[in-house]
Amino acid sequence: MYTDLKRTWAEIDLSALEHNYKTLKKRVQTRFLGVVKADAYGHGAVEVSRRLQELGVDYLAVSSLDEARELRYNGIYCPILILGHTPANQVPMLIANNITQAVSSEQAARDYEQQAARLGATLKVHIKLDTGMSRLGFVCADDAFDETVAAVRRVCAMPHLDAEGVFTHFAVSDEEDEASREYTELQLRRFRKAIVAVESGGHRFRLRHCSNTGAVARWRSAWMDMVRPGLLLYGYGPYAKELGLKPVMRLKSVVGAVKHYAAGTTVSYGRLYEAERDVRIGVIPIGYADGLFRVLSNRYSVVTKDGPAPIRGRICMDMCMIDLTDLPGVGVGDEVELFGERADIDAMAEMASTIPYELTCAVSRRVLRVYLQDGEIVGRKLKMN
Prior knowledge:
21 strands, five-stranded mixed sheet, eight-stranded parallel beta barrel, single chain
């Protein structure tokens, strides 16, 4: 379909994104935060955010100020929450761009308050509670609970901070075993208990949120005021299939050359593959510099128009070789799919001993993104700087 590109591209199906958003929104019947950090998990933050904004998303979440500024500079006006750390000297930028900042400690809150006071302005914040992820946030374990409640109350009372929201992050909400379920229940209890304790001091949070992908799929009791699915929004993972969601990204390449080799020929670096018969080998222009993990060498199969074609030998930086011996109808110029509708990203992730998040985020900047709406190209983007 796009063989004129002569290399490798990622198709981003905005119609699939719309389907996923509407399906999840109908399921949860509450506010919806779209997680678009890490360039929307490799899908393109600006394009994904623009479509979600058109669909009426309530909030977007990014990791850093740079990611938030990219959205603002490209016309994204809906609320944006920065989940990660922002230096206090950037508070003027946060306020000027109407960006909400996560607050994970009382000291950070004091620093933000001081900067906002100098401006005579108010910074909107969401309080991060650590209920068991053991990463960022006010610790809510029993031995620190009273101290945390007191500290959060002090933050909520700061005159130049608007503590609009409070949130936490689950560690194992996507795991099905009993121990994981008990741990998620513990985190949820801690979260609810902390909110009640803080609000008994007079402050009322307008947004309470804790539901990541696993919780949206499995923990109805955790949906609260807003949900924030990550990978689920993009249509990957076992829950996506259960909920009828569609993969948004399809990673594709094209057969650039076809070679014939006799039995006994070895292929690629390290000579890991030796042909047991006369073979017909295709060369496709995608390698580990494009995001195709080297660990998949000699193991994974791409999908052609006539079926799967195994990768032979080591994956190189810019290309890899596939076996077309039993696919005589596949030749130069024909597309292959690395993952998408016909090639399951979950199978690729399992083979690579990783998660789909890493695979979509790994699709490199030199891979062209082709944006589709109802099957028609509506944009192309290549980030090389």
